[in-house]
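Morning. Coffee machine broken again, so started the prediction first thing and wrote up yesterday's gels while waiting. Chain of 656 residues, entered below exactly as on the submission form.
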Amino acid sequence: ATDWRVAPEPLRSSDPGRQLKVAAFGMGSSAYDASTVGRPAKDAFASLVGKLGARPLVGNKVVSKTAGGRKGKSLMVGDAEVGDAGEVYEKWAEGVMASIFPEEEKKSRKASKESETTTCGDGKNESDCACKSQSKPKNDDAGCCSAEKQSDEETDSLSADEDDGYDSSDDIVDLEDMGDIMKSQHSSKSKEPVEMVTPRQAKALKKEGYKLIGTHSAVKLCRWTKHQLRGRGGCYKHTHYGITSYQCMEATPSLACANKCVFCWRHHKNPVGREWRWKTDDPAMIVEEAVNTHVDMIRETRGIPGIRMDRWEEAHTVRHCALSLVGEPIMYPRINELLEELHDRDISTFLVTNGQHPKAIEDLTPITQLYVSVDASNPESLEAVDRPLFSDAWDRLKSSLSCLRRKGQRTVARLTVVKGWNSDDLGGYARLVALGRCSLVEVKGVTFCGKSDASNLNMTNTPWHHEVVEFTRKLKVELDAIREEGGDDPLPEYDLACEHKHSCSVLLARVDQFAVPDPSDPARRKWRTWIDYPKFQELASRHRSDQTFTFGVEDYTADTPDWAVFGADEEGFDPTDKRHRKKSKHPMYARFDGSGVPTHDTFGEPLGEDEMEILRERMDERKRELGDATTVTELRSGEKVLEDPSLMFRGLVVTR
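Came back before lunch.
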């Protein structure tokens, strides 16, 4: 439209029969920003009509039958936040079809009117009505026989001649006016709460293995549950806190979330929202159905090869609940009642929140362990990684961490490390941990779950376990520096307590809460990061009956076994189980030196000096090509690709 070689408004014609007319339908979610909803459709429509001279397709007199007789428009937008896409699309499509095929539309309406059968107030056909012969005044609207009729004047679409005088400004919308448009489109919607999950979302979630409960909850069988049922090891919570993985139920009372994190392994199939606006199911029903559904899934595992029947039978009794499946569980308005339902069944509670609802955290009843996800060390990184709906997400995160400081039970700052995205600025992470005085700090490498349209991550963004260990060591140094500053409320000491190599997870624990002198050697620390679950249930039950009773972290700790302690040869793998690898997935090298050169082969045998020298030369050649440091290449799609010569031998596998 700005090219001098093209006439102004090249799509405009003085001949109504040759005039190009356009219509556009857009989609979006006002949960993020009302001004961006349907932006591509609005921009395209504005360019075609406002700059290039096309005319709006839908005339002023086109009326929608499905939208209560309201006028259709050439440009309309459906909002996923309120779930009106279907209604708005039908209204838009009716206007488009009526404008393209006006004669057919008239015939259709005429046929519909002729086939219309009036009915009595009691639902009978007029021919069967006892009062059919009774005469009624034309203006008597209280009679038993009536029929709704539309005038041709209301439903006739414009002819080409009538449209020639059409004011296109009625259909061209400034982006600044988007909020008013959304309000007008939604004004006729019911004020009753709707169900959270749409049929399309439900289909997508079910396809990924979620079992939906009621209108907004779900359960899913964790892969670690199946692993430990087969004697192949438990999850990191088994190593760090002593849960029994095959007795753990993964669930959520709210599929909706206020973030759309780049690393979310749910691929954003779930709804989003800043506050609760949906129907609210009964917490007792949710817990009952969730437990029953979980047990049904356990029963189905009986035929899996390698299932240990003693564990399979015990797995029918749920003892732990990880409220971290998908969505934001703390958004559920009756979360405290749900937690008490779980505690009444002697089920421990591990609740993960993204730190966007500090008031809900403040009001939370005592639970076994409360997590806040700390996915970034500064506001800019938080915006890029978590993609929050709240404009004040950073302040909300800090407020949530401040709430943890006032909690009497175990609290955790959970850091998910995504290389190239949030793995810098260790000092910022340390300040956030200090803000909450968290009992524990979980540092875990992100799990890459495949490519999707909702994420820009790739396999190079996933750290190796030794990188997570190094990250955690540096974080401890930053925490020590803050502690040395002193002050009226000095930061307690943190130290590396546990690790689970299979999950790329390392645990920092407060020394004052979880470390005691080792009875066999008082100079050494004995870690007590495991949980005495019966003791917690006893304390929680007493608190429910007497709100003045309080208890703390040290009241339900238990000894951490030697194999789970950081630095143990088992690297967090329970020796009562057996590590399983696919035949073709055995690592080519078992150990490496500080520079990344292999030192031991796939069987753990030391490599010869000559072989190591050859490998070292290959790495040096690679470093000459790329440089010694990690290089980050950001693609146009936003994807960040990392190259690090020191990792070139890490991912090699052999068949055994």
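DSSP finds 20 helices and 26 strands in the chain. Going to sketch it on the whiteboard this afternoon.
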